[in-house]
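Support case: user asked for a sample of complex input and structure output to validate their parser. Sending the pair below.
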Amino acid sequence: MLRSISSSWKQFSKSKLGIVGLVIILIFVFMAVAAPILSPYDPQASFIAPMFTPPNSKHLLGTDDVGRDVLSQIIYGSRISIMVGLLAAAVGTLLGTIIGLVSGYFGGIVDDILMRITDIFLIIPFIPLAIMFALYVGPNIWNVVLIFGFLGWPPAARQIRSLTLSLKEAQFIEAARAIGAGNLRIVFRHILPNTTGVIIANVVSRTVFAILAEAGLAFLGASDPRNISWGMMIFYAMRSGAILYGAWWTYIPAGFCVALLACGFAFLGHGITLVLNPRLRGR
Amino acid sequence: MEYGRLLGKYFLITLLASLILATSIAPSVITFARAEENILRIAFDCIPSTFNPLLSMRDICQAVWFGGLLYEPLILNLFNGSLVPWLAKSWEILDEGTRYVFHIDERARWSDGEPVTAYDVEFTWNLTMRYAFPSALRGILLEVKAVDKYTVEFRTSQPWARWYSEFGGTSVLPKHIWEKIEDPLSFEFIDDPKKHVTSSAFIYDSFKPNEWWFFRKRADYWKKESMPKIDGILLRFVSDFSLYPLLLQKGDVDIALPYPFYLLDQVKGKPNIGIWTFPVPVATEVLAVNTRLYPLNLPQVRQAIDLAIDKVEIAEKYFMGYGMPGNRCLVNMAVLKELYVPEAAWLGWGKTKEERIAEANRILDELGFKKGPDGVRVTPNGTRLSYKFIIQMAPLTTVRLRAAEAIVGYLKEIGIEISQYQPLFIMDYFMQAFLAPVKDWGFAEGTYGEYPEPWYNQVYSYLLPPVGLPQVLATGFDQTEPEICELISNLSRSALRRLKYEELAEDVKQIIRVYKDYIPTICLCFYPLWIWVYRTDRLTNWRPEIATKWGAFGYPQPMRPLIAHSLVPVSIGPPTAPPSETPPTAPPTAPPTAPPTAPPTVPAIPVEQIIIAAIIIVIVIAVAGYAAIKIKRKPTK
């Protein structure tokens, strides 16, 4: 196993984009974990300086409309983005994996029904549906994770289903059936391990989507306004007239962080794809 | 041939794409044939769905913005307290305030030339009583009758303090038009200006759906001494308040309403911009407490909550210095001295934060509510003090959300937890706070507007049976403290019967003396909701102090008489100085927190048009280049 990990790492390290992505993610993860140490002020402490103070030596990224330190909010905001991104991707991928495996393995009417449900979820525009659910169940961060998870499974389901369809015809599956292995054992002991690569790639790509979607939902006011998140920072900046005040520091750094973190996961996904798909590796 | 066909195809595609792009991004510019017309251009924030006045209670946009423009009232009720004859030239109050007689001005004419008569008033009220009877007048207004062609009489069961607003201030409709309509509720002319027959100085002329509505001056307006000097009024919908400063500075509009106070720093000191605020900050930011939930039904718990909330911080910081701290009633006693009840002042005055929190904690400790390991109090019977908090999003979304966050923090310090925090759009908030059959929230933060009379806020809130959207519907106070609520309601009804203000004020003070011990709705702060920011370089003689109070909320609207009739285009004559006895009231000084902004530069070239042209040129070049490359690469046979 160690040799397998070492070999994978060697392949991954050849991808410059992947390394860049990993570094970006590690920086943000470190920021999120070490937030209490790194943050110069309490991000919730209001009016520690006049509102919309430009960046200066005391407040490196200035203050917002209620005099809160922007840098502290950026640091603490990374927690929400990473947490929501990863958890929502995990929930969505888990659901998609189960549905894809069941659909692909059993086929027939089960496959038809599950794929038609998948089609419906794919057709419905995500953001309006997410906003509607968020407002209905209440703008709470856990609700947001669940909403993204429950709405974000279709791509994973389709990919896992395709792979399952091809794997279930493989000879080793035939052999397993021949020696009396049950369906559950075949799906979870034989097919699932062979879809790990797709699952991991899916988690990474869904994380990108979830980070951007969470920021979008917060910006639209459909997330919990009490949470310090980058999207919520932009929401307050827009609504409090930061643009008119010329207070670019209240929304540009937050937007930049969203974009940078999403890029980090996208680059990481590129690197992982190279490891999992030998055909993509250069000679 | 091949070359020509291909190029032609790409040219057509380019042309189509450019046209679509140009029309989609070109600003929706309102142009009029005659550039020299002097028109009052108003930016406002809603879209009316109907111009039928019988449906105005269902369409607040129509009621607030168009009500005083479509038709005229019998009398005008001004902000400075004056009553001005309008369709009625005089009036009498007889039989100890149970008969209100109005004498119609014989000169008054409808736009089709027919005279305005008492029969129009009688007909209007018959329609109103049948289809849109104001709930406040149920059991009060008995009959409206035309005594003769120019005399109309309102008969009531009791004196009515707001007779000038409800009887005198309501629009009069043309009987000869409306009596022919089979179903008055379905009559509509918002999309057909020709159907508008009015006595007012401006007649509905044209519109662009969901964008603007234009009213043109009538040269044959009957009230010659009040003939407007402007040519028309344009109401332009602007969806985002944050655009108001830009529109004003660019000169695209003459006035933008309602102007949010947190954007005032953007226009203060700017050339050709005037600012006026409601003379007394009386819009009330309130925290309704759902007394149906235990132990929020206990007055001591509400007193502790009231003490824990730092009203000074909310007013000075979250309301950016434009707020005044609330007290223990719903009237701004600090500025309305005649309603001052010393015992109803906020109990937190003069105390430090630590003292207030300690006092609030002591009150809750004495009730036996112990704090658990997580800091949340639990009652002896096991009820956790953990509640849902709903917040009205607009107006003042950011200000209110920030203040609500602070309130959550204050409550946490006394062991009350907010389990769910839900900002809601305005209509959803009204539904959940007032109209929903089951109310599962513990706290609801919202605003009470500026009523025509500041005392009305206190009187209306707990009137039974409920009138409109009063706080009694939200808090359930009539169910949890029925005797106290009945006492307050009886005092309210007494106040509404008073024709003399001193007697009315005494009744209101009595209400406050009772209310202060129960405060089912906590008063957070008072603030100026209705602020005028207007340009002074095109139209002059802005006199907000002679604005007319109108309808439920009394907002001073510039499109109504007397303002619209007083404005003078600068091109016509020199500006008239405002009367010295009523100088415009400057807003309270905001803390100097905003960074200095560069003065606006007026663009000398049409920037938008250049951008559109540049985009079109780029598209043409790109497509032409692509076409050229494709043609070049096409393999020869």
